[in-house]
Amino acid sequence: MLWVALALCVGIVEPFGDAQSQATSNQALVKRYCVGCHNNQLKTAGVTLQGLDLSAVADRGELLERVLRKVKTGQMPPAGLPRPDAAAGKDFRDWLEGALDAEGAAHPNPGRPAIHRLNRAEYSNAVRDTFDLEYDAGALLPVDDSGYGFDNIGDVLSVSPALLDRYLSVARKISRLVIGDPSIKPVEDAFEPRRPAGRNAPVPGRLEWVSDDLPFNSAGGVSVRYYFPLDAEYVLRVNFGDPNSPTRQAPFELRIPIKAGPRTVGVTFPRESVRPELSLIAGRPPEPVSFAVDLRLDGASLKRTTASATAGTLPRINDFSIAGPYNVTGPGDTPSRRKVFVCRPTGPSDEAGCAHRILATLTRQAYRRPVTDADLRPLVAFYQQAHAKGGFEYGIQKAVEAILVSPDFLFRVESDPKTPDSCHPLRGVELASRLSFFLWSSIPDDELLDLGVAGKLSNPAVLKQQVERMLDDPKSSALVTNFAGQWLYIRNLATVKPDPVVFADFDESLRWSMQRETELFFESIVRENRSALELLTANYTFLNERLAKHYGIPDIYGSQFRRIVLEDTDRGGLLGQASLLTVTSPPNRTSVVQRGKWVLENLLGAPPPPPPPDVPPLDATTKGSHSLSLRAALEQHRASPGCAGCHAAMDPIGFALENYDGIGHWRTKDGGSAIDASGKLPDGTAFNGPSGLKQAMTGSKREEFASTVVEKLLTYALGRGLEYYDQPTVRAILRQSNSGDYPMRDLITAVVMSTPFQMRRSGQ
Description:
Helix content is 41%, strand content 14%.
């Protein structure tokens, strides 16, 4: 319990247990099997165990955690060297783990996360939830640095003068959109299949031949989510065909009044216009065909035209643009204006009081705590100064701008008590923020903040109920896009560029479909509280027609994703998904090394050391052997003594995935040779192919995999890298899964209930 951890941390309760009784025999085991390499002379891998006193675990906790990880994963002693028998090895591992856990329980160290600047995703979500503004504000900020695999690590979220200038610029833009500044000038935002959203797009703009946003009765098209800043006229324009063709069709253009707010705009080809008799006929040259085209706003058809294409294809949409606002009629009744203007002054005498109420309401949520008069005074001053120039709404607009650049909005700061070098529970509002930024990548909502202010989150039952509520909320999709998106490299898919000659089948529709499959899959594991092991072994996935065709799965039609049961055990789980297989491949081939290294680092928590600087690349070691299969080429590469150590762990894992090409398509040959997908894990566990690898990872390696999942969750939740003193917490979370299946929601809840999440160590 948390109070026990607190008591131990400050020295109220005596430490647990004494491990002296078994230290002597285990010290002899270390001397026999380990000190031969890890002594004061050789210091292999920079480690010496000579003279190690196992009765003083507290003094060597960091070193012994490294030892425990190596022996539990079977990496030490190395294959080919003498090892203790299975029973003696297990006794040593169990004793060392118990001694380290007892020390961790006696002297818990919750760590000390750094001051945390909101990253781009958190900034966007905080703007959304504070002002009810559906706008990707973070896209206007520089890309954040990453550490330990994530971009929410406080130590790397630095601040520069250039970034502060950008915050000021973004704040001006956001405040104008929130209030509906009638002086906003017209702009034209163009959207292309390979181009990111325009500068006025509210959410990540998506422009594809297939999309979940398209109606069921469409054969294809494009859609984009766009924020219309004012009630005004806007011009929607579509350009068809090759822009360099002399016979290019004239743009399809429509100018109409549109109400302010976020809208879905689309261009679709109704399915009834795609007639089978117009398909290509063998032996005849392609014929031009006219297709109906609908311009849609929020699902309703605005106007229909026709576009030409070759029979058997759909018309090419070169780009789609939105221009405006023109002939402004007003700011509109937007969700953000309704959120901000909680009152309306009836006359000049009411304006100051109403402004104070508006600012007090906004800052409580923006600053994620109760606010004082000292917090409001500078905002009121901004309001008064602007009010004198432009009236009530302009004054509020400038105060909103000031909120957006306030350190209380941009940073998460956790306070320390005056007692140095001690542990203490987080304040209620600090715990509420930790929880909301973990599960939502955003600020606490009113319910969570009220509980934090009242101090009720210290009640385990209340805290668990909030975790369940928040995971059921749509905002928990941030756990997919930000946590899984970085852990599983889903984000990287947007920038990969497979060679169009080697992988001619790859297109933007396939790229997006790959990403969406993995997002929906991970979301289902969390939502349904499925075992973390099913991330590797699940017999289902989510497919649309484009991705099903890529996988060779028949009878799936349309752009919408649906859950399907897989008959092929090789395709199930993350290791069979094209997203992961594509981001771990170079542009023109597969990479056994990249895939094996990725699995070791991200799924088994056993990253190989960096290669020595003088190791030659693969091509340099296989000159004159271009007809070799990749396995044969790597065997030559591994013949170098400097390569063998690391590649012995990475390559077998990568070979197990060689049946998937560089974009995840199944194959049976490589370089004209049949693929050999067999291999062994570092502990000697043999496997063959993707199914065999998954069985090994959820069999003999299940604890290592589950431990890695927990470590990734805890790193992301705390916003700091894990230290050796966090490992007892990781093991305690795993032990709480009584069934041994490690249900994902249970793991997430256990992270929230842990000492490092709920407590903090003060400074020296």
